[in-house]
Amino acid sequence: MKKIAINTIQTALFLLSIIGITGAKAQHREVQLTKVDKNQVTAIGENVKVFLNIDTVQRQSDQGIKFSIKLKNLSNDDIKIYNILDLMSFLLMDESGKSVDIPHVSKFLSNTRSFKYEEFIVEQIRANGTRENLKMENEKFIDIKNGGTFEITLRIPKIKGGDRTEFYPKTRVSVPKGRYTFQLFLTLVEMKNGVKGSSESLNLPPVTISYGN
After folding, report:
1. Is the residue at 194 inside a domain?
2. Which of 14, 58, 64, 198 sits CB 3.0–4.6 Å from 156 for a disulfide?
3. Per-residue pLDDT tens for 117-151?
4. Does residue 130 contact residue 124 with C-beta atoms inside 8 Å?
């Protein structure tokens, strides 16, 4: 559950930064409307529909567990949202229900200019079905045209090794075979009129994955 707490803290800091810089009153709401199919979970926000695509049976790979997040613009206008990877969190639990430790460094708390996502690898990006060559670490916003889509394919390649006695162990190991429960938590922050940010929390239902079995 530490990962959820970290995500909550960094989201709060981020929303406070919007209020502090723009003077805008950020509105926040929880989104509960979700749907679960075999390999897809969907959630609908005010202007964005989110698709979590994840195969419930996956082969073991050096690149780890694979999933994608697809955003569809439901509004009649082009929209601009903050980079969802900066405000995303996920929970991975083993068959016993124990949380699997995944490396994580918050972009907002990082002191380095060459920040790199540690808990996942960005494998592919598609805008309206066309592959894009973007380095998401450097992208502050995601632009989605009216009726358009933006999809990011990710992999979880490593988990923390060691005996869990260290607060931040340096050892990294490949994801072992097993049955896992995966849950995604997203915060959507949309820019309106260039300055005002409204936010939505989307806590998608958990998905059970058979990995390498």
Report:
1. yes
2. 64
3. 888 999 999 999 999 999 998 899 999 999 999 99
4. no
